[in-house]
Design brief:
The complex is a heterodimer. Chain A is mainly beta. Chain A is built from 1 helix and 11 strands. Chain A has one domain. Chain A has a 6-stranded parallel β-barrel. By secondary structure, chain B is an alpha/beta fold. Chain B has one domain: 3-Layer(aba) Sandwich (Rossmann fold). In chain B, the strands form 3 sheets. Chain B has a 6-stranded mixed β-sheet with strand order 3-2-4-5-11-10. In chain B, strands 1-8-7 form a 3-stranded antiparallel β-sheet. In chain B, strands 6-9 form a two-stranded antiparallel ribbon. In chain B, helix 3 crosses helix 4. The interface between A and B is medium-sized, with 20 and 20 residues.
Chain lengths: ~130, ~210
């Protein structure tokens, strides 16, 4: 079974976070999160102010920033999201807090692409860079 | 609660599943959606409480859907003669001018005090591009003076279900047609249709210059 890395509640990361495994964030992250081909869960206690790119993103906590997912983004009832979502599959639970735009087209809209930076390449042995 | 048959005998077997909510037809919505999608990838703004299913329905059809649970304005404070006016929070939708092809305001106008209605209408008109449409529902005779802002679930382009989510009931106002028309003065009203449930279905569009 694949191990899931957990960023605990007391951890505060500023910077760019990249990786090649699934990740759960319960702490605070500011900057960028890139998890190519992997799943990201923002736990109920997680607070993210970042640009996020992953395979799937599950939001149970708070996110401020745009999310781009290759597969799916889900904002649960407890989740709060402020930013734009670009993903082929999106689930927004009733009761979730959401302010932003949703685009389920594979080709992002021109206005969306203009504001989003291109995805940075993630090497086979991607390193986690963070300022703790 | 025990169940009985029509003849009075007890019913055996499992309880029936709760019936799926029946949709209410909404021709204006169907027309507005059809027109919005005629131009390719429309930008749709959904105001009011989030109904994830409706947002995903429209996004899945190819629209870019903006969601804004806009803060409802308070009535203007009463001012005594000679008193300096108090500052009020302006109505604001966090979108640039002329962004949207369709605005779904649902019943939100009913929760805007009459003295802020023009300001609210102007802000909606601001985010609409020329030729864009606005769909509004306004009650003629609401069942009570206070209610929760409802949300609408789209079952199809012209089929909706009204739901009242949990929340704090808010003061509801009945705006006469002429007040709504005045508030939407930047738009041209395409039609006001009174439903059997006393809900007025209002479709307006932003006319171009010339």
């Amino acid at each position: 079974m694949e191990k899931i890395v957990n960023i605990g509640q007391s951890i505060h990361i500023k910077g760019e976070l990249t990786g090649n495994e699934d990740l759960t964030i319960e702490g605070k992250v500011e900057g960028k999160v890139f998890l190519k081909d992997h799943n990201l869960t923002i736990g109920a206690n997680g607070k993210i102010t970042a640009e996020i790119q992953a395979k799937t993103v599950m939001v149970l906590g708070e996110v401020t920033g745009n999310i781009t997912a290759d597969d799916k983004v889900e904002v649960a009832t407890s989740g709060s999201m402020r930013g734009d979502i670009v993903a082929p599959r999106v689930v927004l639970a009733d009761g979730a807090k959401f302010r932003g735009a949703i685009d389920m087209d594979r080709k992002p809209a021109s206005s969306a692409s203009a504001s989003k930076p291109a995805m940075e390449p993630v090497g086979a042995a991607a390193a986690k860079t963070a300022t703790l | 609660m025990s169940r009985t048959t029509r003849g009075g005998g007890p019913v055996t077997g499992p309880s029936p599943e709760p019936a799926a909510p029946a949709g209410q037809p909404c021709g204006a919505l169907g027309r507005a959606i059809a027109r919005a999608f005629r131009g390719g990838k429309p930008e749709i703004l959904a105001l009011g409480p989030l109904c994830g299913e409706s947002v995903v329905y429209l996004a899945g059809r190819g629209a870019r859907v903006h969601v804004d649970e806009i803060a409802l304005p308070e009535p203007l404070p009463t001012r005594q003669p000679g008193e300096t006016p108090r500052e009020v929070t302006p109505v604001s939708i966090s979108l640039p001018e002329g962004q949207c092809d369709l605005v779904l305001a649902w019943e939100i106008l009913d929760f805007v005090p009459p003295d802020r209605l023009v300001e609210f209408g102007a802000e909606i008109a601001r985010v609409m591009r020329t030729g864009a449409q606005l769909l509004v529902f306004a009650h003629q005779k609401p069942p009570s003076e206070y209610s929760v802002v409802p949300r609408y679930r789209l079952l199809a382009d012209d089929l909706i279900v009204r739901e009242e989510p949990e929340g704090k009931p808010l003061r509801r106002y009945v705006h006469p047609n002429r007040e709504i028309e005045r508030a939407l003065s930047g738009l041209s009203i395409q039609g006001i249709q009174l439903q059997r449930n006393q809900l007025r279905e209002i479709l307006a569009s932003k006319a171009g210059v010339g």
